[in-house]
Structures are given as C-alpha cells and as structure tokens.
Structure to design on (179 residues):
C-alpha cells in the first residue's frame, strides 16, 4: 500500500482586504522598516530575513518574479530580462506576499503556513493585494500626492523621484484619483 505525497508548498490565500486596508498596512511597514521613497529596496529584503536571486528560476516558476518562503526565511527570484525599475516593483510585490499572505495570515488569522510559494503572474486576489501593497510601499499616498503636485503632475518626474516606472507612477496617480 503506497503513501500519497503531498506538496508542502501552499499558494497565497487572499486576505479579502480592500485597497485602503492593504495600503494602510504597507504604510505601517514603511514606517516600521524605516524605508523612504527612492531608497534601495534590497536592504529591506535582508532586514526581513530574505534574499534576492537574479536569473535562477526554479521549476515552473514565473519568468516575471516569484517568492518562496520556508519557515520565515524567503527567497525572491528575479529574472535577468527585466529592467531595474520593474525589478524594484517586483521585489516590493514579493515583500507584499511575505507580509500579507505569510505574516498576517499566520499572526492575525492564526494560520500555520510554513511553506508558501507565489509567482508574479495572473490577476487573482492575492496578486492584486500584493500589487496594492507594492504601490503603497514604494509610493506612500501622502508623499505621492505632495510630490505629484510639486512636480507639476509630470509622471516621468514623479516616477524618477520614487524610482519606479512611469507606468507604475501613472497607475498610482489614477488609483489615488489624481489623474
């Protein structure tokens, strides 16, 4: 009689929070981690107990980035074929999975997740939540509103200030009702 092997990797489970709730948590994380807009994001990964690996995609992982979390330690995989600005957003997105779908699920929702794997593709709710987190983490709303006005609503200059792509800055402006 054979035994059935079950995979230890769990996929992220949506919190079901709205954009404002996710953004508030991201703002709290920015303050707690001492992150300022435009600063390098890599030290935040290390501060949280993670590492970043470039170009080494594992098995069937997305070619646009992924995260694997094992017992509180994590690895973010970034492909070689993307830009530094895209990588920055991807890293913030993967931090979002770590915070929302691992830390919050385990601490607030009393889950017992030890192994989590998320791949950056698709439009399911956990991916949307991680995108909201990344946008709010890299471009906090109060700072974004102020900088957007100071720079004459020029999304290229705003993107340069926050070190994100013009597309990310434009989406953030729209989501905050500024454009």
């Amino acid at each position: 009689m054979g035994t059935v092997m079950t995979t230890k990797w769990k996929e992220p489970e949506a919190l079901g929070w709205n954009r404002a709730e996710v953004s508030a948590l991201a703002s709290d994380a920015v303050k707690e981690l001492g992150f300022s807009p435009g600063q390098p994001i890599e030290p935040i990964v290390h501060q949280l107990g993670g590492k970043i690996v470039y170009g080494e995609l594992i098995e069937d992982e997305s070619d646009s980035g992924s995260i694997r979390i094992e017992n509180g330690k994590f690895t973010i995989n970034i492909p070689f074929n993307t830009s530094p600005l895209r990588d920055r957003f991807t890293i913030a997105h993967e931090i979002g999975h770590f915070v929302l779908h691992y830390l919050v699920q385990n601490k607030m929702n009393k889950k017992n997740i030890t192994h989590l794997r998320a791949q950056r593709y698709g439009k399911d709710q956990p991916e949307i939540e991680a995108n909201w987190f990344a946008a709010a983490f890299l471009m906090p709303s109060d700072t974004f509103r102020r900088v957007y006005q100071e720079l004459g609503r020029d999304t290229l200059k705003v993107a340069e200030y926050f070190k994100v792509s013009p597309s990310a800055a434009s989406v953030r402006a729209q989501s905050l009702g500024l454009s």
Notes: Confidence is low (pLDDT under 50) at residues 1-5. The beta strands are 50-54, 66-70, 73-78, 115-119. DSSP finds seven helices and four strands in the chain.
